[in-house]
Amino acid sequence: MPILGCAILPHSPMILDPNREGCPDGIREIHEGCKAVGQVVASWEPELVVFLTPHGISAPKSPRPGIYLTPSATGTAEQAGNWADYELAIQIDSEIATGFLNHLGSSGVACVKITGTEAPLAPSEIVPLWFLRGLSLLKRAPRFMLLSLPTPIGGTSIIRSESSKERVPDMLMYGSHLHKYLSWLSHRVAIVLSGDLAHTHATACKVPMYLPNPEWKMPVSDAAAVFDAIVEKWASTLNGDFITRDAAALVKQAISCAFDGLVVLQAIMEKEGTSKFSRHIFARHRPTYVGMIAAVFQVDKRVPCPEFSYTPPVLSE
């Protein structure tokens, strides 16, 4: 199993179209950064993409992670009547997914099986996948193993973040199990995390489509900026303490749906050897209330350093 690299992509639909009238500052920067991540991941020519989502189907009462065993999954990025025209489908490698399910079961980790002919995808999956759609143009398009991280009762980012710190040991163990299983495969593997950083930034934006749903009652916290800066520091160093200690201490106040997945990525890259990964942060911004980062951690040395071919967008003053 060659792990070619890992990537982080945000999933707020606001980043899909930077040309919309009234688009807040920072969205174009994130959009272009996500495009660059998609190009780098496609250049790896993976045979399998392991896709981690915090808002997929899982078992909230346990909570238990979910594994998609359907042959395909489809959906749109529609949110509050916007972005419905962003629609796509992916092919899932149900055989590999079943193998991981069995591996977790033999290790004493209970999971939810998502079965049927086709699974639904939400914006939390569609938005990152939109930036990865270049994978479908490869001579041998990869299949996906779609994994839903455990979601506590209620499923919102606020509820998830209340107990994220307590789940750190479980997420480290989950990442170790995933790395071990992937090590048995012969496939060229890319691992992609869908997730947003702190959801509690103050913003002057008044346009509803760029703001949280009022029903979420999202607070504002001074911890947001600090949390995002810590995650960027982690992404530039892969020093696990920045995530499992420093970010963990703030996630309850900062509120981040990406946190659990960041812990999983840290466990995978530690098992693989963090020194193998070159680190590339293409964008980090908080256009309105939510922070986002677009980054890759690359192992495959045959691909040139991503920064050499990436030109950041020219932003207006």
Overall description:
The chain has 317 residues and is an alpha/beta fold. The chain has a single domain, classed as Protocatechuate 4,5-dioxygenase, Chain B. The mean pLDDT is 90. This is Extradiol ring-cleavage dioxygenase class III enzyme subunit B domain-containing protein.
Counted up, domains total 1
Q: Count the helices. How many?
A: 8
Helix vs. strand class: alpha/beta
Question: End-to-end span in angstroms?
Answer: 46 Å
Query: Could you give the count of β-strands?
Result: 11
String of helices and strands: EHEEEEHEEHEHHEHHHEE
Q: How many whole angstroms does the radius of gyration measure?
A: 18 Å
Approximately how much beta-strand content do the residues carry?
Answer: 15-25%
CATH homologous superfamily grouping: LigB-like
CATH architecture heading: 3-Layer(aba) Sandwich
Determine the CATH topology: Protocatechuate 4,5-dioxygenase, Chain B
Shape: globular
Low-pLDDT regions: none
What is the mean predicted local confidence, pLDDT? 90
Secondary structure blueprint with pairings:
Elements: E1 3-9, H1 27-43, E2 48-53, E3 66-68, E4 72-76, E5 87-91, H2 94-106, E6 112-114, E7 119-121, H3 123-131, E8 143-148, H4 157-162, H5 168-183, E9 189-194, H6 223-237, H7 241-254, H8 259-272, E10 278-285, E11 292-298
Parallel strand pairs: 1-9, 2-8, 2-9, 3-6, 4-7
Antiparallel strand pairs: 1-11, 3-8, 4-5, 10-11
Helix pairs in contact: 5-8, 6-7, 7-8
